[in-house]
Design brief:
This protein is α/β, with parallel strands linked by helices and 443 residues long. It has 2 domains: 168 residues, HUPs (Rossmann fold); 231 residues, 3-Layer(aba) Sandwich (Rossmann fold), CATH 3.40.50. Helix content is 46%, strand content 12%. It has 19 helices and 12 strands. Strands 3-2-1-4-5-6 form a 6-stranded parallel beta sheet, sandwiched between helices. About 3% of the residues have low confidence.
Length: 443
């Protein structure tokens, strides 16, 4: 596959970046364009830069719905300074059969001999230097490109690109002034920056208004979902298959299956053996169940809860940070989410094997909130299980229950801030909070 690479701080990414990607893809016959948010470029040291989480989140939202565009976090995963040769070599190790074209601004032709190991960059990819408008001297640039190619090896091409007076600096300034950035950045990026208050200033807001903001009930900036029973209709599947696999199914076994909903594998096994006896064939049945469920998702038959995709799509585009906190093992979570096309909606995923304590302990939600860089009070949790609601409340978050196999009892009605019949209703509740916040801003 032929892949174009466009790197940048993307703070925030804007339509100029997207247009550059599409322009390059068309002119050089590329299959895909990958956008690479930078970890810490050396030229940004000492300057205020939005977090890696936010820049990655905005970049993912910017390419949402563009079939040939992808996002790679390869540079964000490295600590310290970010160097292009390291990025190229890392990608070649991961994708040895693919051909890479790295796109830079035309000024790279004057800077390349000062970069670290330009010969190693060109050994792994072609370089395209994009001009900025008709004022560029194409003949001179092409001569320079030929000289650099001869000096360092590899291939350097020059590409004409229209001049666009758009920059991330301009967009940040407009955010600070409370101006719209419509048409300068994708709508989902603008909504994310506004919801997360990335570039807004408190300057000019009266002290009494600031105090009021601190005292009012925390507004959700992140929504954390459970998976089984909440997004995927797998709890009933799990119970029914286990009951079929057990040679002596009983009401006692069914109750145990209900009791462990929302807990991780370690807690689940311990509870089974405690209630049903140390000789219960837990491992054997669990392995058989895993093979059956794997066959279900490999066949694309994993049941998704009604309204799940619409709920995630809407919240994702509305600027919320989205997290998944599932007691299931990561290998299963990622495989199942990918099989039903929901994986890419999540900014952070925390699984049962990432934590020590199982729900109802709040550890999984607190860890998810920390990785989402959001205070617990600004997190809304969507859960189906009793243990999940208990954990969310203990974490200091706002629990929204969408019951699955067990109807809410008095405890759940007390702990849950909302109880909804399905995810469509849950989405309506969250949108109503947005509307109330917008109304408060107007008045």
């Amino acid at each position: 596959m032929k892949i174009g690479l466009i790197g940048g701080t993307f703070d925030p990414i804007h339509v100029g970046h997207l247009l550059l990607g599409e322009w390059t893809r068309e002119q050089f016959g590329l299959d895909e364009i990958w956008f690479l948010p930078a970890g810490m470029p050396y030229f940004k040291e000492g300057k205020k830069v939005s977090s890696r989480l936010d820049r990655l989140a905005m970049t993912k939202r910017a390419v949402m719905g563009i079939p040939a565009a992808k996002v790679s976090s390869v540079e964000l995963e490295r600590e310290g300074r970010t160097y292009t040769y390291e990025t190229v070599e890392a990608l070649k190790r991961l994708y040895p059969e693919d051909e890479f074209t790295f796109v830079f601004g035309a000024d790279c032709l004057d800077q390349l001999d000062g970069w670290r190991f330009p010969d190693r960059i060109l050994a792994g990819c072609r370089i395209v230097a994009a001009t900025r408008g008709a004022a560029s001297d194409l003949t001179l640039m092409r001569e320079k490109a030929q000289q650099l190619s001869a000096r360092f090896g590899g291939e350097i091409k020059v590409m004409e690109f229209p001049a666009l007076e758009i920059s991330s600096t301009l967009i940040r300034q407009r955010f600070e002034k409370g101006l719209s950035n419509r048409f300068l950045i994708p709508d989902a990026v603008e909504q994310y920056a506004l919801k997360q208050k990335l570039y807004q200033s408190e300057q000019g807001i009266p002290n009494e208004d600031r105090t009021h903001r601190m005292e009012e009930k925390a507004k959700p900036r992140a929504v954390i979902f459970d998976m089984d029973g909440t997004l995927l209709d797998t709890e009933r599947l799990f119970v029914d298959i286990w009951m079929d696999l057990d040679d002596n199914p009983s009401p006692k076994l069914e109750q145990v299956l209900y009791d462990v909903i929302g807990t991780n594998a370690v807690h689940t096994k311990a509870h089974f053996l405690e209630v049903l006896g140390e000789d219960y064939p837990y491992d054997e049945i669990r392995a058989r169940l895993a093979r059956i469920v794997t066959g279900v998702w490999e066949a694309g038959a994993l049941p998704v809860k009604a309204g799940a995709r619409a709920c995630l799509e809407t919240l994702y585009a509305s600027g919320y940070r989205l997290g998944l906190a599932s007691s299931t093992a990561r290998s299963i979570v990622e495989a199942e989410l990918k099989s039903v096309g929901l994986f890419d909606f999540f900014d952070i995923i925390v699984c049962g094997d990432d934590i020590k304590a199982s729900k109802p302990d709040p550890e999984i939600f607190l860890k998810t909130a920390a990785l989402l860089e959001t205070a617990p009070g600004n997190c809304l949790v969507v859960e189906d299980s009793f243990n999940g609601i208990r954990a969310a409340k203990a974490a200091g978050m706002r629990p929204l229950m969408v019951p699955d196999l067990k109807a809410p009892d008095e405890e759940m009605r007390e702990l849950s801030e909302w109880i909804c019949g399905d995810l469509k209703e849950a989405l309506a509740v969250i949108r109503s909070l947005e509307e109330a916040e917008e109304k408060g801003k107007r008045f």
